[in-house]
Design a protein that fits this description.
The chain has 207 residues and is an all-alpha fold. The protein is built from nine helices and two strands, in the order ααααββααααα. A two-stranded antiparallel ribbon has the order 1-2. Helix 2 crosses helix 8.
């Protein structure tokens, strides 16, 4: 019995270590999408797959993740402070690369069929962002490359976006402008490196 418990504990520790090891560290150069994808070809494949599935450009989806978490897998909102000192509760359940709320993530799992998705997994997170942006395109008529308005709908929800709840929120308008600027920069960068990223390992040997 003691030996059995020992092995169960050992397996649990090993599984935890493997899980932790699967969470990628923050990219060294988060402002250059070519640098990110050159270091993490798996991220490029996931981003490209999400673009093909949902019709939202890689550059837009990557700009969202950069804005939301700076590509940190376990990002969370800052805690509120009680009396400016004592850490209080977090303002929302937002978590992971995409800062997705619990309820919105559950909706994604249900509607996309990706019901074992993880917010700290990049492949799942970028697919979530692309899915949400495709929903905003369908529900609110926002163009696929209009990162500014897609971000407003992402933050406010499509109901809030259509009601104009973002109007007068200067901080949100500034954030949306940043997302558009980053999407434009990422798109320009990708135009210079996409052909290289599309090569398989064998083709790269002779390039």
């Amino acid at each position: 019995m003691i030996q059995t418990r020992f092995y169960r504990t050992l397996c649990l520790i090993s599984s935890t270590a493997i899980f932790l090891g699967c969470v990628a560290s923050q990219p060294r150069n988060a402002t250059n999408v070519c640098s990110i994808f050159e270091d993490r070809r798996g991220w490029y494949r996931a981003a490209k797959s999400s673009e093909q599935r949902w019709g939202i450009p890689v550059s837009v989806n990557m700009a969202f993740i950069y804005q939301e978490s700076s590509f940190r897998a376990r990002a969370k909102p800052e805690r509120n402070r009680i009396l400016w000192i004592i850490p209080g509760p977090r303002p929302s359940s937002a978590y992971g690369y995409a800062q997705a709320l619990d309820s919105t993530w559950q909706e994604y799992e249900s509607r996309s069929g990706n019901n074992r998705a993880s917010r700290s997994n990049f492949d799942d997170a970028i697919d979530f962002v692309a899915w949400y942006n495709a929903s905003s395109r369908r529900l609110s008529g926002i163009a696929a490359d209009d990162a500014r308005n897609l971000y407003l709908a992402y933050h406010e929800g499509n109901g809030g976006y259509q009601r104009g709840s973002w109007r007068g929120k200067e901080w949100l308008l500034n954030a949306a402008a940043n997302v558009q600027a980053n999407a434009d920069r990422f798109d320009s960068q990708l135009n210079r490196c996409r052909s290289e990223l599309d090569k398989n390992w064998f083709q790269r040997l002779f390039s």
